[in-house]
Specification:
The complex is a heterodimer.
Chain A lengths: L1 H8 L15 E6 L12 E3 L4 E3 L12 H17 L3 E3 L8 E18 L9 H4 L6 E18 L10 E10 L4 H17 L8
Chain B lengths: L1 H13 L4 E14 L1 H6 L6 E11 L3 E23 L3 E23 L7 E19 L2 E21 L4 E12 L8 E14 L1
Classes of the chains: A alpha/beta, B mainly beta.
Chain lengths: ~200, ~200
């Protein structure tokens, strides 16, 4: 019994995420040969919408226009803070194109447990007493991508992607929670990319 | 490894006349050291160990040790740079599960004293799983490694067959292909039972 108590205390994965925000990550990637040193090249164009790049067969709600407006405004504000100016249309001397995309993914998980005890993650440790039981569940993850193209160094057939950033996490059932996390993520992706600065 | 096995056999053959046996159950606590502390620095009280020893001529013993040591730390809001150009920000949940299985040899300095001290060495295989979870992904470094440890300890007799035991081991698990080496100080507290 004492050994059992100690063994339980030694459990494989103590602790871990408690809230869905704990799963959030923000990432930012600069292309190897991207060069942001020309301070005068600071004009960008950004379409006034968030593009959905998920599977069209998925049962996913369209992007909420209020959410989209807030996201685009936050990106524009962050770009302005780094010395960029947004133009309203193409062919207005823009040096960069910025696109915002949303990807929602379905993730199906099947897991098993058997034999009782703690070792649900490792059925082969606990199995053998009686057949394991299984269950399947789904969770949705969302990713918001911000992509920047260097138009001065692109060709009509070969865009030069110089910066990719995004925030990824589990989708929340409340719009306000998703929105707050997305906006915080946008702040963070610029904070992770000081090389973008034009001022 | 060969030399260690030969040394163990030599000790075994010299001490084969008078043989006693005892086993110990210990509560093992771990303090990550070196580069392991860069991954997880938190002291862990999650661990258990079983030690079996056959004693020869009162001064020497051969045996084996099995342990299960778990270490954990959440690194909140951690920024990691990958390949110079990619930066990832998020909370990382880091876990180490270490299961050392080792043959060991010990020397007892004052076996009949009220407080008896010993020192020893263990070597064998350590199955170690380092898991760094961020978002829905995990970076995993797991597998068998060569493991070894020096050890010092103390016994305090409670009665004819039971002793209190405390020991410190410096657990080492060597690097494997594509993985890191790991080390941690391991403090063992428990009881020993047997005739010795």
């Amino acid at each position: 019994m004492a050994f059992g108590a100690i063994a339980l205390m030694a459990s494989c994965y103590p602790g871990g995420p408690s809230y869905i925000e704990d799963y959030d990550i923000t990432f930012a990637t600069k292309a190897d040969d991207a060069d942001f040193s020309d301070k005068s090249a600071n004009v960008f164009f950004m379409p006034n919408e968030i593009f959905d790049i998920g599977d069209t067969n998925q049962n996913v709600d369209p992007v909420n226009p209020i959410f989209a407006a807030k996201v685009l405004a936050r990106i524009e504000a962050q770009m302005a803070e780094y010395g960029y100016t947004r133009v309203a249309d193409t062919s207005m001397g823009e040096n960069y194109g910025v696109a915002v995309q949303r990807l929602i993914s379905d993730n199906w998980v099947t897991y098993y447990w058997g034999g009782g005890g703690y070792c649900g993650w490792y059925p082969y440790w606990c199995g053998g007493y009686y057949p394991p039981t299984g269950s399947t569940y789904n969770y949705q993850t969302g990713t918001l991508y911000v992509t920047m193209i260097d138009l001065d160094n692109s060709t009509p057939t070969l865009p030069f992607f110089v910066w990719d950033a995004g925030i990824n996490g589990l989708l929340s059932s409340t719009q306000s929670n998703t929105e707050a996390r997305a906006l915080n993520g946008i702040n963070k992706m610029f904070e992770l990319s000081p090389y973008l600065k034009k001022n | 490894m060969k030399k260690i096995i030969i040394a163990l056999l030599v000790v075994f053959s010299f001490g084969a006349q008078a043989q006693d046996y005892f086993w110990s159950l210990t509560w093992d606590q771990s303090l990550p050291m070196g580069s392991t502390a860069d991954k997880i620095s938190a002291y862990s009280v999650r661990g258990v160990g079983i030690d079996n020893r056959w004693v020869y001529n009162e001064k020497y013993s051969l045996g084996f040790y099995m342990g299960w040591h778990t270490m954990y730390e959440a690194k909140e809001n951690e920024t990691s740079v990958i390949n110079n150009n990619t930066t990832i920000y998020g909370t990382q949940y880091r876990y180490i599960n270490s299961i050392p299985l080792a043959l060991n040899a010990h020397y007892y300095f004052n076996p009949h004293a009220k407080v008896s001290f010993y020192a020893g060495l263990g070597a064998g295989g350590t199955w170690l799983n380092y898991r760094n979870e961020v978002n829905l992904w995990a970076i995993v470094d797991k597998g068998w490694r060569f493991g070894w440890y020096p050890e010092v300890g103390v016994h305090v007799p409670l009665n004819r067959t039971t002793k209190l035991m405390a020991a410190a081991k410096y657990q080492n698990a060597t690097a494997r292909k594509g993985g890191d080496s790991y080390s941690y100080l391991n403090f063992n507290f428990g009881l020993s039972w047997g005739f010795f």
